[in-house]
Amino acid sequence: NVESNFAFGEGGAGTWSDGKLTTRIGRNSRGVREVLETFVEYGAPEKILVDGSPHLGTDNLVRLLRKMRFDLRKLGGEIRFGAKMTKVNTNRETASVTGVDVVYSHSFERG
């Protein structure tokens, strides 16, 4: 189904990979380091901060994403399963995003 398959949804196709992270340890930008530290805050093993080929595993990715979703909601964020963004609306004068167009389909949330 081109509108719904394993590559869609929470985490996208990466959720169902084997959990290897491409990080270039030793040459990471501050942003990459912050992502790895965030994974650790949500329960990933601390060794991903120093391993040359860090590995989370699919089971860990699913659990980490679920915890992140719950925290985003606590902070007032909305998670919209079944939503497909069809267009990013921008203001060319300010070079900023002003909104998105979304189409909704039936979906359900697990966990």
Please describe the topology of this protein:
Layout: H1 30-41, H2 58-74, E1 83-91, E2 96-104
Antiparallel strand pairs: 1-2
Descriptive overview:
The protein is an alpha+beta fold and 111 residues long. Helix content is 26%, strand content 16%. The chain has helices spanning 30-41, 58-74; strands spanning 83-91, 96-104. A hairpin with a 4-residue loop joins strand 1 (83-91) and strand 2 (96-104). It is globular. The two termini are 23 Å apart.
Using brief descriptors, characterize the structure shown:
111 residues, alpha+beta, 2 helices, 2 strands, 26% helix
Concise synopsis of the structure shown:
With 111 residues, this protein is an alpha+beta fold. 26% of the residues lie in helices and 16% in strands. A two-stranded antiparallel ribbon has the order 1-2.
Strand content: 15-25%
Number of helices: 2
Structural class: alpha+beta
Q: Which sheet architecture does the biggest sheet show?
A: 2 strands, antiparallel
Number of strands: 2
What order do the strands of the largest sheet run in, or round the barrel if closed? 1-2
Can you tell me the overall shape? Answer: globular
Q: Distance between termini?
A: 23 Å
Compressed to H and E, one letter per element, the order equals HHEE
